[in-house]
Design goal:
Binds to the N-terminal domain of the chaperone ClpA. This protein is of the alpha+beta class. The chain is about 40% helix and about 20% strand. It has a domain of about 70 residues: 2-Layer Sandwich (Ribosomal Protein L30, Chain: A). The structure holds L-tyrosinamide (TYC).
Length: about 110
């Protein structure tokens, strides 16, 4: 075929067609893990719990403990269901082992 006279059907010769795939992402349900205040658990124990199970530094753990102490409830972190459930169990087991009445619960966001 002469130059400058390519037929239409050859126009896309060598072009690879990749179909678009639709990515359907769904956001996971998230849960707050909360500590509840009580009159008996020592402040130092609560700070230790927040550092140990919620990976907070001492300053942040102290801030959270004082928030709970003054407001009755406070958030330690936000996690997917299974992680939140594990945190609650770990905190409750640790508090029971040390004979403190500290309560930890989860709440859907
Ligand atoms: N209120 C407790 C006290 O005065 C301290 C405390 C803080 C207990 C936070 C529980 O989740 C809690 N010793």
């Amino acid at each position: 075929m002469a130059n400058g006279s390519r037929r239409d059907e050859d126009a896309d010769a060598g072009t690879v067609v990749v179909p678009k795939t639709r990515t359907v992402t769904k956001r996971p349900n998230l849960y707050r893990v909360l500590l509840l205040n009580d009159d008996y658990t020592p402040m130092e124990f609560v700070i230790h719990v927040v550092e140990r199970f919620f990976q907070k530094n001492r300053e942040e753990a102290t801030r959270i403990m004082l928030h709970v102490h003054h407001h009755g409830v406070g958030e330690c972190g936000v996690y997917t269901y299974e992680v939140a459930e594990t945190k609650v169990t770990q905190v409750m087991d640790f508090a029971r082992k040390h004979q403190h009445p500290l309560q930890c619960v989860m709440e859907k966001k």
